[in-house]
Design goal:
single chain; 114 residues; alpha+beta; Aspartate Aminotransferase, domain 1; 4 helices; globular; YjbR/MT2646/Rv2570-like; MmcQ/YjbR family DNA-binding protein
């Protein structure tokens, strides 16, 4: 069970209007100017926007894979350790993070993962 960084980047490529911004230590991802994710190559972790209830459930269920990053604006961000998650689960979480930030008309154009 593990997701490589190239798999994570492919997941992002399936979504519409994803904007990447590079910093020295991380990459950040937005849709139409609204941030929904981060990637830290050094630690092989990603940060994803989620609902507060999903943040709480993920961290409570598997604290070895998920940790609280922060909460803001009614959303809970989680850190995901790529070496502890399967591709299909991460695909769903990435889609949900994107969906929480994307405008409705854009979400209607991109079906959720199976």
């Amino acid at each position: 069970m593990s997701v490589r960084s190239d798999e994570f980047h492919r997941m992002l490529g399936t979504l519409a209007d994803v904007e990447r911004s590079d910093a020295k230590e991380w990459e950040s991802y937005s849709v139409r100017g609204k941030r929904f994710g981060y990637y830290w190559p050094r630690t092989q972790t990603v940060g994803l926007k989620q609902t507060l209830s999903e943040q709480e459930a993920l961290v409570a269920e598997r604290p070895d894979v998920f940790e609280v990053q922060f909460t803001t604006g009614g959303f809970g961000w989680v850190v995901v350790h790529l070496d502890g998650i399967e591709s299909d689960e991460l695909t769903e979480l990435v889609y949900e993070a994107w969906r929480l930030s994307a405008p409705e008309e854009l979400v209607a154009q991109v079906p959720p993962p199976c």
